[in-house]
Structure formats: structure tokens, C-alpha cells
Amino acid sequence: MDIISQLQEQVNTIASIAFNAFGSLQRDAPPVRLSQNYPDPPPPPATNPAEDASNFPDQPKIMSAALVKAAKQFDALVAALPLAEGGEEAQLKRIAELQAENDAVGQELQWQLEASEKELKQVQELFREATDNCLNLKKPD
Description:
- Belongs to the Mediator complex subunit 21 family.
- It is found in: Nucleus.
- This is Mediator of RNA polymerase II transcription subunit 21.
- Residues 30-59 are annotated as: Disordered.
- It comes from Trapa natans.
- With 141 residues, this protein is an all-alpha fold.
- Helices cover 70% and strands 0% of the residues.
- It contains three helices and no strands.
- It has helices spanning 3-28, 58-79, 87-136.
- It is elongated, with a radius of gyration of 34 Å.
- It starts with a helix and ends in a 5-residue tail after the last helix.
- The relative contact order is 0.08.
């Protein structure tokens, strides 16, 4: 996989971790009293003891560690990108060279395609003649 695809994949990973972290925090955060004017929040519904809110304080640490790890991997991929050499003018010159090379190869492929199509027509004609000759042959009496 090329570096750009790896960067895209890492961005998707970071977005997924952030999405899951925010969703988990929203889902599992204990209710907070906004003001003294409001009544006390209702107690949380009874859940599975294995998913008790007691492990809630550890969740942000785990999720933030995963997010930091993914961000460091992204930074490492960015650092592995090749540096632009010579500035914009050199890049435009290189693009023009590559475009000219691409055009030349495209022209060569077009010539090969035309030659192949001519050869295919010749082979089809020869095949047609051969099948006609075979069909015109009569079995000996």
C-alpha cells in the first residue's frame, strides 16, 4: 500500500477512535446536576455488573491513549513522505516531463492496438476461408 493510502487509512482510524470515544463518553458519563434549581438527576438504570460505571474513569484514559497512538502513527507516516525538491517550478517541470512520457507511451499503445486489430481481422478472414473450405469439402462416396 502506498503512503497516501496509508495516510488515508490512518485518518479513518483516528476518526473512528474519536467517534467511539465521544459516543462512549456520552453513553457512560454519569448524570450531572446543571443547577441547584433542577432536581437531582435520576439514578442510572441497572446494567450488567461487568459494564458497571465504576470502570468509567479508566475509559477516557484508554481511549485517549489509543487516539495519541494513532496520531503518532499518522505523524510518522507524514514524516516518511518525500520532500518536495526544487519548489513549485521543479514540480511543474517534472509533471510536464511525466505528461510527455505518458503521451508517448499512449501513442505507442495506440499503434500497437491498431496493428493488433489489423492482425485480428486477417486471422478472422483466414479462419473464415478455412471453415468455408472445410464445409465445401464433400465426403467421398
